[in-house]
Amino acid sequence: MHAVLSDGYFKPQSPDVWSMIKYGDANIDYYSGRLGLNIPIYTYDDPAFKIPISIDYASNGFQPGASIGVVGMGWYLNVGGAITREVRGIRDDAIKETFDWRWGANENETLKWDQIVYPDGVPGSWVYARSVRIDGYAQNYFNSVPQDSLNFVYTGAAGQEYMPYWVNHNNDRQGIETEPDIFHFKFMDYSGSFILQPNRQIKVFNTNTPAGEFEIKFDMDNSQPSLSKFVIITGNKTKYYFEYPITCQTQSDISSSLDTGFNFTWKLTRIEAPNGETVRFVYNKQQADYTTITPVINIDKIVLSNISGNELPPEHQIQDPQNMPSSKFTVSNSVHEHLLDSIIIENRANIVFTYNFNSLLASVQVYNNTDESPVKTCTCEYVKTTGNRLVHFLKKVNLSDVGQYAMDYYDETAQYEHDHTFKVDQYGYFNNNDTYAKKTPSADLQNIAEDLRTLRPSSETHTRMGMLKALHYPTGGYSNFIYEQNTAFHQGKNTNVGGLRIKQIDTYSKEGKQTQNRKFSYCQKDDSNKSSGKILQYPGYYFKYTAASQGVYLVDKEGKQYSSGVIIDREIVSSLNNIGFSQNSYIEYLRVVEEIRKLTNDIKPISITEYNFHSADGVLSDGGLPTEAYEAISNNRLYSFDNWRLEMELAPSSEINEYMRVTSTFTGGKLRSKTEYAEDLDHPVKHESYSYGYYQSEDPINVYTAYLCQAVNHLYRTNAIYQNQKITELYNKDSVLIYNNETKYLVNDLGRTSAVVQTDSKGDEIREMYSYLDRVPAYPTEIIKTNKGNVISAMKIDYEQQSNAEDHYTPLKVWKGAVGVAPLNIEYRPDCIYSHYDTHGNPRQVVDKNGKTTCYFWGYNGRHIVAKVENSTYNILLGYGIGTTYSEALPADVEAQLRNDEEENFIVTTYTYKPLVGITSITDPSGHSVYYEYNDSGKLKVIRDDKGKVLKSYDYHIVTDNQ
């Protein structure tokens, strides 16, 4: 959100966490114009866990104040996950934060002794002040408080001098804030947001998977609030633990700070599968320090008056006009984070991360649980600049099984500006121009605001410094990247906006011959001279308003009515905002056209694709609802339970607009339509349109507060959306529609797909219907597919709960249904029966539809089948060790016993593996073996028979092997 002045926490997470939350898995983002690239490092994958590791690129340009992560400028290590938060009011986990009483701005009230008492009843120290102690919203989460007694305290924050709170009925000088924080999560394939609610309830919303399936638990010890933690449980009952909090500390270079740091990030520390298997993320060695610095021009004038409007004497004023602070300074926030040391998959794998002395990623090594040497390795190489600022660039990524990626950057050898420079545009991007900061401040603050707006232009060439110029692939080919300045059609004209967008990508073979040209244009459909860009957040610099805290109709001891309070007149000009560092984009492109050619100068493109997006504009959106909104209250007044009144009046000259009072919409950035053309935009080939619906559309949660110099009602919308329709149209070479298909998606109350209905041009309907297990809502129990109302396939699954874990359910029976009937008339017959599971969730016996029984021995700690036995049952094989899950291959004596038992006549096939690499041998029932050999990179090299004869061999020629 856009406050009058930022609290200083511009990027309160480490660069890698911030990028992972903002960008997710980086790909070209047409909606924002941002180039995104992904270099896969390794993915651990088994039935319980899938853990991808990659190095991703996402950058809009050089921001001198931004810190650089563990893989150099513009790149980030995408692994694990994190929960981050945006503070609303005070932090949810705050304990007994001290604020002045509602009239406390004039510091003229009687002091009072009072004792701090923690919510759990433990008394603390005595204090002597006018203070009121406020707990964060988490105390309302743990123990719901009556919300019938609203009061407010003085905070001094610009634009929100007063903060409402719910009064503690047992102590009128204690209370709980009214506004919950917004938390965001991103881990593996999951992302979304949530807020705490009373009585240990948590609202999950805006997710990329069914929101209703998430369970979230929050835990905090009031005596150690900095050690708070979360557990997120997904629809398949896997638990993700976020137990490593990371603090951020903010300070200014013109004043000392008592800020010791607060939690803004909780990193993923553990994953627990329903079968009890675990993964641990270990952070225990090297610490990295990240600082984001923002240059500030700021003048803040405050005058206090009594309730009659008479200015208070100097000794009761907050400011001394003769001793005003400097108007030019920097604000920094610092994050101290222990780097990821290893990922330990219990009894299966260990992924080790090492770093150089600059806290840059040096290597990733993947070990199995049997070999001393890593089975896969990634190493990183860097170059650094000289000058006012040391900048590291990721230069090479060497993958043992793939080869080498190499990178070139714009102005790679240039000298880079120091991080506290004032040479930045309105969005924090480098422009090499600090004229505005050298001017003598005008007495008229509106003139200074105009300078901040007009004397900080964007500069494409300077913003481009350090951006990725070329990426060389292991195959020997490479791609070149060309960028251009962001633009938006704003106030009737095209306007430059901070940051760059991708303009062109040219790809070449290893011989240097061009193989593809991609061009991106960002213009409106009806007028190609108008940018399709739209500004979502625009900086405001000048604010003028009055805030009055007044007791009305008060009665003294003698029964006489009187009024009390203070009036604050405030005028501010400031460049202190966090738009350029916001996790929400400040610009969007509603239409983007991509043209693909073989050669750059080819006249006709091979293909043209047009993308249209829904706007995130929460004011003039196309039907989308903003996730948060601040609605002004009538007369701009808030009332306390005891007849005090907070009144705020905003001067017309203040630079506040409606866009500052809303966040992005739920549908913002969602694809509206995609059209493929042949040769030009007059010849469509295929058109797809998309629409979205809400499946969690409850009434907004609303609380009263002061925000942007007004008394407002703060609305939280906890909706979740899903794609409810897709229409596909196909055209012939004459652009005549020849086929269309409508697909509708229905979801259940949790948000999981319950039906998919496809209707084609002839009106024929194909319908798929899904049902799910109540206890584990991600598990399907029935899938029926019909054509024109008749069943064409049907399957039903019965589950059983395993004894080793509460949420461990495994398939018991799979049923197949008869076809050619109506869904209500389906008759099911058994298709497969699974039984005798081990603790990992592996079946040891399977009976097919014909009654044939196959049994399995499991090894390598439950990861692989080491023996398949036919012509027997589990009960018979109990005496042969089938009840044991082996740590490695099937023991030789057990295999010999199985193969040599003449009485039972077992049909035995055995398997061996190199863990995390592949199968190494298969021995068939006759005793003949086939062997598989791998090179040092883990690639299959040779297949031999049991006599050593080569059956197949493989050669790999990676261009970068010798570079």
From TrEMBL:
InterPro entries: YD (IPR006530). This is Uncharacterized protein. The lineage of its organism: Bacteria, Pseudomonadati, Bacteroidota, Bacteroidia, Bacteroidales.
